[in-house]
Amino acid sequence: MRIRTMLTAAAIGSLTLTGLAASPSSADGEPGNPAEIVTGVLTPEEESAVQTAPGSTKKVDMYYEGRKIDPASDWQGANVCVEVSEDGTMQCFDNDTESNRFLATHAPTAQARAGARQALAGTRQVRLATTAQAVSGQPATAKTAAVKGYSSCPNSYVCLWQDSNYAGRRLQWPTYSESKTRHLDQYSPSFQDKASSAYVNRPQRGVEVYDFRTGLPDPHLFLGAGYSLYPNFKNIEYTYGGSWNDRADAIKF
Questions:
Q1: Which of the chain's termini has less CB crowding within 10 Å, N or C?
Q2: What are the CA-CA distances from residue 199 to residues 41, 155, 161 (Å)?
């Protein structure tokens, strides 16, 4: 069963404040909010497929500063962890610049490497413009402000943030030729029940987020492609009441 719901008034209000309410998601590379949210519950067959998807259950290897992260430990200061292999291996970084420098040469697909290089080029342009304005005594404009928020998710990637409005720790996945499913407790520490915002930074192929329930059909949330922004899961109604904030247990990207 699927339920289509329009964005709540609170969601539209928050998007208006950031100048995004009038920008529907599009295929021209410009980010925008989707016109509607698609939610529903899985059939028993669909639940089984998600639960047993290849590569979705065992703990993935995660590395930070050249060392493997202890599965019983934390991210050890890292702020972003990115999948760098189809087996689920993650590399973690302090900031976006470090991440994109690595991904520009080591990302698992040509498209992902290009997205990282594009992000690096954009960061350099912002720095040059900001420096020029500082020298001339002019105030920084919005376009030359530090790159932040959803802009930290490179082109062709799917990103989940721990906090609303694209803040806090981030998990990031590239686009493969075929969709992959990952359970969010595969990461160290678990990212299960922690996601609060998302960005699908690609023109095609949406993303599904799942919540595993006991005794009830598992709800799922469809995040559309077309450079779609989801700034606050609190504004997305949950199947059994409340919101989708801190509900995600798995993702199919």
A1: N
A2: 22, 10, 9
Q: Does domain 37-252 have CATH number 3.40.50.150?
A: no
- In what helix (H) or strand (E) does residue 133 lie, and over which residues does it extend? helix 110-136
The per-residue pLDDT for 35 is 63
The answer to whether residue 190 scores a pLDDT higher than 60 is yes
CA–CA distance from 159 to each of 4, 142, 226 (Å)? 23, 23, 14
Partner residues linked to 2 by β-bridges = 40
List the chain domain ranges: 37-252
- Establish how many alpha carbons lie within 13 A of residue 38's alpha carbon, considering only the half-sphere containing its beta carbon: 12
How remote is the C-alpha of 100 from its chain's centroid?
15
Give the residue from 24, 17, 30 showing the smallest Cα distance to 165. 17
Contact, 141 vs 179, CB < 8 A?
no
| Rounded-to-integer distance, Cα 62 and Cα 225, Å | 27
Length of the chain: 253
The reported pLDDT for the residue numbered 132 is 44
Query: In this structure, what token pair is assigned to residue 102?
Result: 């690595």
pLDDT for 147: 45
> What is the CB neighbour count within 10 angstroms for residue 187?
22
Instruction: Specify the DSSP element, H or E, that contains 161.
Output: strand 158-163
21 vs 206: which has the higher pLDDT: 206
pLDDT tier at 141 (50, 70, 90 boundaries)? Answer: very low
Pair 79, 170: CB distance under 8 Å: yes
